[in-house]
Amino acid sequence: MGHNGHGNGDTRKIAFICSKGNLDMAYPALIMGWAALGNGLDVTIFFTFWGLDMITKSRVNRLEVPPVANSSMKMKMMGIPTGNLGIPNWMGIIPGMTAFATWLMRKKIAALGVPPVGEFLQMLVDGGAKLYGCKMTVDMMKLSKDDFVDGVIDVVSAADFIDMTEGAEVIFI
Fold first, then answer.
1. Measured in whole angstroms, how far is the alpha carbon of residue 137 from the centre of its chain?
2. Beta strand 13-18 with 42-47: parallel, antiparallel or unpaired?
3. Mind listing the pLDDT tens digit for each residue in 51-88?
4. Could you tell me which residues come within 8 angstroms of residue 13 by beta carbon, excluding any fewer than 6 positions away?
């Protein structure tokens, strides 16, 4: 039958690799991770490169949505009825545009009843998800485990992460 987590009494495993620290890239892994926990899957989340911002105490509540070159950020999201028109790049360089886009995104996320990133991470940890930081990135950014939110189990190498998640479906964000 092989070790794929199906039909042999094993729990299905899913692992997310979070490599981006923008607000709009933080939520997909959290939402899918929460859904997976709810479905009884074993969930591991590995934070690397800018994804480490999601678990760094000083950054977790400051994640932003830069609108420049973010082609999926539509004008109509901002309440301007222009249909599917993206925000032109020149608008993204207006001072305060990132702050505005970020405020708007936080407001829209809160309106859906979705908790802020820090709170969401705590819910995942309480639900049994395992969080890890990437050793190479941690060393490169001169961070330590103390810089991270509660619930981050350890800082591990990419090779360790691959060993730990053997047989898991891996999703890279």
1. 16
2. parallel
3. 999 999 999 999 998 766 555 555 555 555 555 556 56
4. 5, 41, 42, 43, 44, 165, 167, 168, 169
